[in-house]
Amino acid sequence: MSRNRLSKKVQEIEPSGIRKFFDLILGRKDIVSLGVGEPDFPVPWKIREEMIYALEKGYTSYTSNIGLYELRKEISNYYRKFGVECKAEDIIITTGVSEAVDLALRAIVDEGDTVLIPDPSYVSYKPLTILAGGNPILVPTLPDFKLNYEKIAQYAKNTSPKALIINYPANPTGVSYRKKELEEIADAVIEFDMLVISDEIYAELTYPFDHTSIASLNGMEDKCIVMNGFSKAFAMTGLRIGYVIAPSDIVSAMLKIHQYSMLCAPITSQIGALEALRNAEEDLEKMKAKYMRRRNFFVKKLRKFFDVKMPDGAFYVFPDIRNTGLNSEEFAENLLVKKGVAVVPGNAFGECGEGFIRCSYAVGMEKLKEAVDRIEDFLKSR
Amino acid sequence: MCNAVEVLKVIEENAKLTPEEIAEMVGCNPDEVREIIKKKEKDGTIIKYKTLIDWEKTGEEMVYAIIDVSVSLTREKGYDDIAKRIAKFPEVQTVRLVSGEYDFQVVVKGKSLKDVAFFVAEKISTIPEVKDTVTHFVLRTYKEEGVLLFSDEEDRRLAIVP
Question: What is the ipTM of this complex?
Answer without folding.
Answer: 0.76
